[in-house]
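In response to a reviewer's request, we include the raw inputs and outputs for one of the modeled complexes. The two entities were modeled together in a single run.
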Amino acid sequence: MNLMATTWKMIVGNSPLCSFACNKKEPLEPQRIKKFGIEHLRFRNDFKLLDKIAQRINVSVSGSGMTRPVNGSEMGVIEDTDFELIGGIIYDACKEQGVNAMPGLLCWEWNLTDKKNIVDQLSYCSREGNLGVGKIFHALVIKTGFCGDKIVDTALVNMYAKCGEIGSAVKVFDGMLSIDVASYNCLISGFLSNEMFDEALGFFAQMGVWEIRPNHYTFSIMISGCGSVFAINEGIQLHAHVVKLQHVVNGVVANSLLTMYCKFGMMENAQSLFQSLPKKNVVSWTAIISGLYQQRALEKALLQFYLMRQHGFEPNEYTLTMALSSCGGIKQFDNGYALHAQLVKKGMASGAFVGTAIVDMYTELGQMDNAEKQLQEMGTIASAVSWNALIAGFVHNNNIEAALKAFHKMVLNYVPIDEYTFSNALKACSSFPSLSTSRQIHCWVIKASSERNLHVASSLIEAYGKCGSLDDAEKVFDQISMPDIVSWNCLVKAYSQHGYFEKAVSLFKKMVVEGVKPSGSTFLAVLSACSHCGLVQEGKEFFKSMLMNYSVIPEETHYCCMVDLFSRSGHLEDALDFIKRLPIKPTASIWRPLLAGCRCHCDLQLGEYVANRILELEPDDASVHVTLSNMYFDVGRLGDLVKQRELMKLKEVKKEPGYSWIEVKNKTYKFFSGDTTHPQTPEVYDLLEKLINDIRISTPHTELGLCNEGKLLYHSEKLAVCFGLLNLPAGTPIRIFKNIRVCSDCHTTMKHISKITKHEILLRDNYRFHHFKQGCCSCGDFW
DNA sequence: CTAGGGTTAG
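The model returned the following structure tokens for the whole complex.
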């Protein structure tokens, strides 16, 4: 309450809403109402309907005005009317509207002249959003002459407002003879639920003109509206009023304030308000939990959830779902299981929302078996969202094959495919990467007219990029009407990954011209292009301009990229200097490219130094020993080599999710994949050594790259073993070349592979070979 | 006539 207690006086003083009797805002003119895009002609249909009813019961409809007092002659009509017959006709009309099940709504015993009944029916329509039936009842209201009655008219306003026909609501409201706070509330609430905050505020301010005082209903409505549209100033002002008028004691008003602050992300205000509530209920607790959850303060959300239970409040489906998701997000396995168990016990686990949340939790915990099992148990309840969650889970957990299988199964089960599905499936294609599958999905996307979705389009660009089909990627990009930063980044990245430095830069310039501000990812792509093309000077300039010209703060990944840029090009001292000047403490990831550079440029002394820095930070990194042992081999220090090999074998290879499999001579080997810095098991290294004699792999970068750690494996459509792929992003397309000569020293594939036409050739005319020349010239084996 | 609210994608 601190905020309120101290500030409301100040706020109230100059609030435009401060006095309800003072009218600073002009009341809404008809012109203004028209400006909202409101149609006033909707009632025509009702007359038609009314005429239809009238014809059938053979009475004339005398009234033409909608909202005027009932006159004597109309009363006469009512007296003559066979209301049972009208009831029957309404029943038929409802059926014609396709309304079958309206339990308790229409029955013969009703007295249709009973005002309360009609109001009940109208509020039923409001709740259900049933405009068609609502209009029929409006017709009945006119027929029976109830229009003009304040309560009936208010019910009509409410009905139209809730059913989304706000123009008709305004029309009825305007025609009302006397207006009270309830009619205003209905209309304001209608504006807010139709996302017309300004109009709601206008009418709220207008109440004062008629000397109608807003009540606690009004404040609840308005406060909730402020929360939805992020109207912070108005919200705080309303809070001040509420304090002044002592409405806070009302639980509903307090809860709406609480929710509003949660939506604003002002959790401190929300918490203090929450603490001050004398009577908390489930809504109050849910608001706080949901607020924390939305702020991604998952631990706090979970804590709040436990507190809620401690205070004896029974969690419902919603609170349980948020608790579940929180467990997934912060990897709380045990609590996750416990919550799942509770949901099963309560019989909620197979509901669509909760069930999906369970699937999602297990994918976040990396337990894909459980996720799949949960989906199976949901059976036909499983929605597209549930399937999407599963597929996304497989993609995140690097099981691409399973992701595509799940996608296939989803199709077989006639689950409707949506944009999320496309995006996920395409992501799987790019990790594979499989051009043919990407194309198939693209066809599907076109058939479903989903190309306009930015997520889908970006995924397509990425997939084509990863599959090496840059023309397709560009075509997809060109078809986007308003590309956003992500779509731009996808295209820049695609060109960058394939070594098209100039193209990446020209795209970068183009996006700036078109008013899209480059992001961290954009710079990462451009810097990476510089690094792979050996363009040290250009890279340095881009790095400088990041912060200076585009105010993008460099992150660890950018630093890695810069170290890589220096190291690849042999500027090892510059790399070291760069690391030492960093504003952050250098991480292992920042040191690693320098170690690779030392290996490639044969600087053993610096290599040892860097290796020690990495091992200080990540003592279990076996790959450091691999590199060192190779460097000792190069200089003939076999004793040191053996030592490193021993150390390497001693160190446990981390057991992380994300493997690839490779089949060689009917035996399956398991590899870590997806992370180029992951060390493989010693068994894998042995295998790779054997394979090196049979298969040569090339990527767009191997020709340029640092070479021959032989530790990287990518899962392509066929087997792929990569050499020299340090710092290559996961999923970079690779092709397999058989019997290609490589540089005997650094295993760099040689330029003349482009002559081997029967295999797919990745080398392009404008491809740069800076590194290749340096590396292989220095080893003297330049053919 | 009023307050709360969960799951998926670039």
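As requested, we also summarize the result in words. Strands of chain A lie at 659-664, 667-672, 695-698, 712-713, 721-722, 735-738. Residues 659-779 of chain A form one domain.
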